[in-house]
Design goal:
Elements: H1 10-15, E1 30-35, E2 44-47, H2 51-58, E3 67-71, E4 75-82, E5 93-98, E6 106-113, H3 117-127, H4 136-140, E7 150-152, E8 170-172, H5 180-206, E9 213-216, H6 223-233, E10 237-240, H7 245-258, H8 264-270, E11 273-277, H9 283-300
Length: 305
């Protein structure tokens, strides 16, 4: 699809020898596409959003610069850039965020992190450091800091913003002082460090400073992670009352088409905060931690080259 015309791209269809007649029509994210039959007889089908775009809508990120991060097996960050198409020079993807009915399309920058919650699963299943994923926070809290231990989870290379297929995972900074708690803490911090890398790329591409990060996904109950994320970003991190933001975003799109909600202002009013974390870490400490993380990332490069 051509991002400007919002229709199939003629040049790409010719390159891949795809007849345009065989492709479906491209429709907006919020309109009535048809009426269901059978068990849902008479119910209008009126909302279509991709997974991460739906989470962006569910988080009510409707203004340029508003961003959300979904913490799951991996991490998926989207930042609303409004009606402006921002072509990335920092390893991010440019995508359509949503288009509601006859309104102009809104665009987003997207960055993907391959390993986030999967690193916690690896500690559980491969190393046996924890018996369940829920134990990671308690173990990480058993130490006051990471003990200068850093984990770069490049199990299958690094995604945005590095895009290094030859990178491999490393644990750096080990001494005889390091224990299970330090490794657990380093695993959580790796997710936060990777998130900062992507958000910095978004800020550079868009020339917009992030004022807060809205979060959802399976890892957001981990309050140690959320606080560290706020510290390392030096902006507030917000967890909404409704954590199933993807389902909520799809419902919002359908409801707008049906007139259940009148406009996005009503959706913003419907969005509620469960908890907000404020940065508390001194700037000098934050810079030192991030510098050490970057040093560890560099060590992971070129492993299979």
């Amino acid at each position: 699809m051509n991002l400007i015309s919002l229709n199939w791209d003629r040049e790409l269809l010719e390159i891949f020898d795809i007849p345009r007649v065989m492709l479906p029509r491209i429709r907006t994210s919020s309109e009535i596409y048809g009426i269901a039959r059978g068990e849902l007889e008479g119910v209008a089908i009126s909302g279509i959003l991709g997974d991460q775009q739906a989470a962006l809508v569910g988080q009510a990120c409707f203004r340029p610069g508003e961003a959300k991060n979904t913490y799951g097996t991996g991490c998926f960050l989207l930042m609303n850039t409004g009606t402006k198409i921002v072509q990335s020079s920092c390893g991010l993807l440019t995508t359509v965020a949503y288009q509601f009915g006859k309104e102009e399309a809104r665009y987003a920058l997207e960055g993907s992190i391959a390993i986030a919650g999967a690193l916690v699963q690896w500690l559980r299943d491969n190393l046996g450091i924890i018996r369940s994923s829920g134990e990671i926070e308690e173990l990480a809290r058993s130490v006051p800091d990471n003990g200068d231990v850093y984990i770069v989870p490049a199990f299958s290379g690094l995604y945005a913003p590095h895009w290094k297929a030859d990178a491999r995972g490393i644990i750096a900074g080990l001494t005889r002082y390091a224990n299970r708690g330090h490794i657990a803490r380093a695993a959580l911090e790796a997710t936060a460090f990777q998130t900062r890398e992507v958000l910095e790329a978004m800020e550079k591409d868009s020339s917009i400073s992030i004022l807060e990060l809205r979060t959802d996904g399976g890892m957001v109950p981990n309050e140690l992670l959320m606080q560290f994320q706020s510290d390392i970003l030096h902006v507030p991190v917000v967890r909404p009352k409704t954590s199933e933001t993807t389902s909520l975003g799809a419902a919002y799109a359908a409801g707008l088409a049906m007139g259940f909600w009148s406009d996005t202002d009503e959706l913003v009013a419907n969005w509620g905060v469960d908890r907000r974390w404020q940065p508390t870490m001194p700037g000098e400490q934050c810079r030192a931690l991030y510098a050490s993380w970057n040093k560890a990332v560099q060590r992971s490069f070129g492993w299979t080259g």
